[in-house]
Amino acid sequence: MPASPIRKLVPFAEAAKKKGTKVYHLNIGQPDIETPPAIIDAVKHADIRVLEYSHSAGNESYRRKLVQYYKKVGIDVTYDQIMITTGGSEAILFGFFTCLNPGDEVIVPEPFYANYNGFACAAGVTVKPITSTIETGFALPPIEEFEKVITAKTKAIIICSPNNPTGYLYSKEEMYKLKDICLKHNLYLFSDEAYREFCYDGEYVSAMHIEGMEEHVVLMDTISKRYSACGARIGALVTKNKAVYDAAMKFAQARLSPPGLAQIMGEAAIDLPDSYFEAPKAEYLSRRNLLVKRLNAMHGVICPNPGGAFYAIAKLPIDDSDRFCQWLLESFSHQGETIMLAPATGFYGTPGLGKQEVRLAYVLNTAALDRAMNCLEEALKIYPGRIEN
Ligand SMILES: Cc1ncc(COP(=O)(O)O)c(C=O)c1O
Predict the structure, then answer these.
(1) How far is the CA of 230 from the centre of ligand 1 (A)?
(2) Fewest CB within 10 angstroms: 130, 193, 225, 374, which?
(3) What is the pTM of this model?
């Protein structure tokens, strides 16, 4: 079981803080945007006498309301095609358990959300990475690259758009290429759409928008980022494939039910006005613009402009991103401050890749981000492992 690249440097950050250094956390996708008070109030004011198990697929009232939400984003599903899960994490896990047997293979464009490794490990499944590169801004690799790794054991492709960790937003053309390959080889398409609401350039295309893919698509969703409600632990697995849904239900029944209080939050969130997303989206956009501008202005740094989510991958003039990120916490400070980043090595399945790359989550306000960028700029000037690209 691999360590999380996002959390493995935490002891070094704790030690830096004990020394009195302020640490800017750009390592983790924990949004700082306030959770909408209305959804917390919904729990406070709920009339609960017994906090019961819910239906294993989640409260029917919530699932019926989610149908309205999905309609607004162009996804046409019925309530019995939606299964509420304990975070998007459990939806991904159910997808693996349901659609793949131990020994099967799943193709994932890398760099990818590192926890897919953990879920694959739990399901006994092998991840087959195909590399997308910083030079193309992390676009979908050519279809031939998929063809090269497909074997009799390949059962699914996972995509995440807008992407964590690259911020890349797949185009309609790319989604149709994926459709062709899934239909040709009879593969499931796992579509992780955790960041749907945060698209800045280009149009969001859901795997559920693609006609002719009804039996293939398993949508993995979550309210964690959408409403800054990571601690609620509410997500959803959505599929029109009845056999997949029915099999996933067995896993859902085995764990009894998703969180009860948080389902009340999720349901209340659907009553938020459509305008709710305008402010967080504008905030993330101004942060992205600042971050990308500052990074590309640093000598030897390359950062493609991410089209969505709240992450960017940057290539730095360094020897080893794991060493650099640890050094930032252990041996560096600028005006009593430093920065915590996620080494990109953990987001690649191919050993050796990502050694010069880091992931930055722009989950701090612009003033804090600017100071964090000052730290990075100064650090790159004096890092002993600096190399010129
Ligand atoms: C791409 C992606 N999928 C899934 C998750 C898991 O989300 P949840 O908090 O709903 O389990 C995350 C969390 O960061 C994520 O970035």
Answers:
(1) 8
(2) 374
(3) 0.95
Task: Give 236 Cα–ligand 1 centroid separation in angstroms.
Answer: 11
Q: What is the architecture, at CATH level 2, of domain 10-34+277-382?
A: Alpha-Beta Complex (3.90)
Residue 58 corresponds to which tokens in the numbers above?
Answer: 């989640």
- The whole-angstrom separation of Cα 108 and Cα 96 is 13
Pairing outcome for strands 105-110 and 154-160 = parallel
User: Taking Cα atoms as reference points, which of 221, 248, 222 lies closest to residue 233?
Assistant: 222
Answer yes or no: CATH 3.40.640.10 is held by domain 37-271.
yes
Q: What is the pLDDT of residues 307-329, one digit of tens each?
A: 999 999 999 999 999 999 999 99
Closest CA to 63 of 275, 256, 235: 235
| CB-CB neighbours of 366 under 10 Å | 14
Residue ranges, comma separated, of all CATH 3.40.640.10 domains in the chain are: 37-271
Ligand 1 atom with the smallest distance to the CA of 160 is 1
Contact present, 110 and 347 (Cβ < 8 Å): yes
Percent above pLDDT 70 for the chain = 100
DSSP-derived pairing of the beta strands 235-239 and 82-85: antiparallel
* Structure tokens that stand for 18 in this block: 């004990």
CA of 28 to the centre of ligand 1 (A): 11
Q: Quote the CA–CA distance of 124 and 172 in Å, as a whole number.
A: 32
**Eight-state DSSP code of residue 135:** G
Backbone angles phi, psi at 129, to 5 degrees: -80, 145
